[in-house]
C-alpha cells in the first residue's frame, strides 16, 4: 500500500476513533474466517482511517495526481477551481466565483465514510464573508448552479458548510453545517439557508482557523452521521446522527463552493473515502442498490413542526398564551365553584341550625 502522501498520516489513530465507533456492533468483520485467522482486532480499528480501507479511486490526496489530467483523471474540476500542490481552491476570496471538483468514478460501496480536510479563510471581517461550500454524493456532477456553486434539484445527499446567515431572522448560529437529501423535487432556499429542507445540522467554528479543520461523513445502514474536528483537539465531535436515510449506490462524490457579494477562499486539502466493513442481510444484498430513490423516512424533529413554513415563528408564544388563558379560565372556574360552594355550605349550615 502506498504511504499516505496527503499529510497527517497519523490521523485516524485508534484514539481519535474511540468517539466515532459509538456503535461497534455495526462494524462487522468482512468474513468470519478473517476473524478466526487474524489476531483479534477491535471493531473500531476497522474504520480507523488506515490505508487498508482507503479507496484511492474515490480519494483526493496531495499532490493530486490524476486530477484533471488527460491520461486517467479520477477527478474533474470546473469554474474557478484552481489546483496547487497543497490544496484545491474551489473559489478564491473574490466576488461572484463558483467552482467544483468531482470524482469521475461512481461509488458502488454500500457503507462508506468520507473524511474531508478543508480550509475556509479570507480577509472578510465578522459576517462579511461567504458563502461556504458543499460536499456532495449525487447523481449529477460538474453542473454549475446556485447551490454553493452547484446544481439545484439534485438527486442524492448534500452537506452544506454554510458560513453566512442569509436569513437574518434565523435562530441558528453560523457557521452552520447541515444535510439535505433530495430526489430531484426539492429546491434549496438560499435566502433561508436551506431551513425548510434541512435534515439535521449543527453549529461549528470552521472559518479562519490557524489549525487544520476536518469533517467526516459516515453513511452506513441508512444512518447518516456527520462529525467535525475543528477545535485542534484531534478528536471527532458529533454534529448530527440521523437514521432512515436511503441513498443509492453509483452516485458521485464532489465538492463545490460559491461566492456572491461576499467571499472567502474555499480550499479542499483532501477527501479520503473509506470503505466500512458492514454485513447486510441476504434480502438487502439482493436488491439493486443503484435503483434506490434518495429519501428520508424519519419524522421531522419537533422544532420543525412548531415552525410555520411562512417564516413566522409565532407558534411558540401563541401556545404559551393559550396555556395561560386556559389556566386563567380554570382558576376563575375554581374560584366561582369555591364561592358557590361556600354560599351553599353556609346556607345549609344555617338550615341545619334551624332544624336542630
Ligand atoms: C420526492 O420527494 C417528495 C418530497 O420529499 C415526494 O413527495 C415525492 O413523492 C418524491 N418523488 C419520488 C419519485 O419518490
Ligand atoms: Ca447561507
From TrEMBL:
InterPro entries recorded for this chain? ConA-like_dom_sf (IPR013320), Intracellular_Lectin-GPT (IPR051136), Lectin_leg (IPR005052), VIP36_lectin (IPR035664)
Subcellular location, record wording: Endomembrane system; Golgi apparatus membrane
Per the UniProt entry, the signal peptide is 1-44
* GO cellular component terms, semicolon-separated: cell surface; COPII-coated ER to Golgi transport vesicle; endoplasmic reticulum membrane; endoplasmic reticulum-Golgi intermediate compartment; extracellular space; Golgi membrane; plasma membrane
Biological processes, Gene Ontology terms? endoplasmic reticulum to Golgi vesicle-mediated transport; positive regulation of phagocytosis; retrograde vesicle-mediated transport, Golgi to endoplasmic reticulum
Q: Which GO terms describe its molecular function?
A: D-mannose binding; heat shock protein binding; metal ion binding
Q: Which CDD domains match?
A: lectin_VIP36_VIPL
Q: What keywords are assigned to this protein?
A: Disulfide bond, Glycoprotein, Golgi apparatus, Lectin, Membrane, Metal-binding, Signal, Transmembrane, Transmembrane helix
Q: What residues does the L-type lectin-like domain cover?
A: 52-276
- Chief subcellular location equals membrane
List the transmembrane segments. Answer: 323-345
Answer yes or no on keyword Coiled coil. no
Q: How does it sit in the membrane?
A: Single-pass type I membrane protein; Single-pass membrane protein
Identify the domain of life: Eukaryota
Q: Name one Pfam family in it.
A: Lectin_leg-like
What PANTHER family does the annotation carry?
Answer: VESICULAR INTEGRAL-MEMBRANE PROTEIN VIP36, VESICULAR MANNOSE-BINDING LECTIN
Name the UniProt record assigns to this protein: Lectin, mannose binding 2
Amino acid at each position: 500500500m502506498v504511504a499516505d502522501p496527503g499529510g497527517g498520516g497519523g490521523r485516524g489513530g485508534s484514539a481519535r476513533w474511540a468517539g466515532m465507533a459509538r456503535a461497534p456492533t455495526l462494524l462487522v468483520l468482512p468474513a468470519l474466517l478473517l476473524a478466526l485467522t487474524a489476531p483479534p482486532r477491535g471493531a473500531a480499528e476497522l474504520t480507523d482511517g488506515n490505508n487498508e480501507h482507503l479507496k484511492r479511486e474515490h480519494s483526493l490526496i496531495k499532490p493530486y495526481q490524476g486530477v484533471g489530467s488527460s491520461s486517467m483523471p479520477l477527478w474533474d474540476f470546473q469554474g474557478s477551481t484552481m489546483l496547487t500542490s497543497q490544496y484545491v481552491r474551489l473559489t478564491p476570496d473574490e466576488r461572484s466565483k463558483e467552482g467544483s471538483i468531482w470524482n469521475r468514478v461512481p461509488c458502488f460501496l454500500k457503507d462508506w465514510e468520507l473524511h474531508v480536510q478543508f480550509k475556509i479563510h479570507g480577509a472578510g471581517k465578522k459576517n462579511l464573508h461567504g458563502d461556504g461550500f458543499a460536499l456532495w454524493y449525487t447523481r449529477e456532477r460538474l453542473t454549475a448552479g446556485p447551490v454553493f456553486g452547484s446544481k439545484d434539484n439534485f438527486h442524492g445527499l448534500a452537506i452544506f458548510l454554510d458560513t453566512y446567515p442569509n436569513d437574518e431572522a434565523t435562530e441558528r448560529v453560523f457557521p452552520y453545517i447541515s444535510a439535505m437529501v433530495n430526489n430531484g423535487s426539492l429546491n434549496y432556499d438560499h435566502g433561508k439557508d436551506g431551513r425548510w429542507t434541512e435534515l439535521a445540522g449543527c453549529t461549528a467554528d470552521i472559518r479562519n482557523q490557524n489549525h487544520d479543520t476536518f469533517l467526516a461523513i459516515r453513511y452506513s445502514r441508512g444512518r447518516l452521521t456527520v462529525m467535525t474536528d475543528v477545535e485542534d483537539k484531534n478528536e471527532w465531535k458529533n454534529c448530527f446522527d440521523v437514521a432512515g436515510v436511503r441513498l443509492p449506490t453509483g452516485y458521485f462524490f464532489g465538492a463545490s463552493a460559491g461566492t456572491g457579494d461576499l467571499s472567502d477562499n474555499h480550499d479542499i486539502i483532501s477527501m479520503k473515502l473509506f470503505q466500512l466493513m458492514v454485513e447486510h442481510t441476504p434480502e438487502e444484498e439482493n436488491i439493486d442498490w443503484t435503483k434506490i430513490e434518495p429519501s428520508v423516512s424519519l419524522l421531522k424533529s419537533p422544532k420543525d413542526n412548531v415552525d410555520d413554513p411562512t417564516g413566522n415563528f409565532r407558534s411558540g408564544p401563541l401556545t404559551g398564551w393559550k396555556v395561560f388563558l386556559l389556566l386563567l379560565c380554570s382558576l376563575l372556574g375554581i374560584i366561582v365553584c369555591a364561592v358557590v360552594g361556600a354560599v351553599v355550605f353556609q346556607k345549609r349550615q344555617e338550615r341545619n341550625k334551624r332544624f336542630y
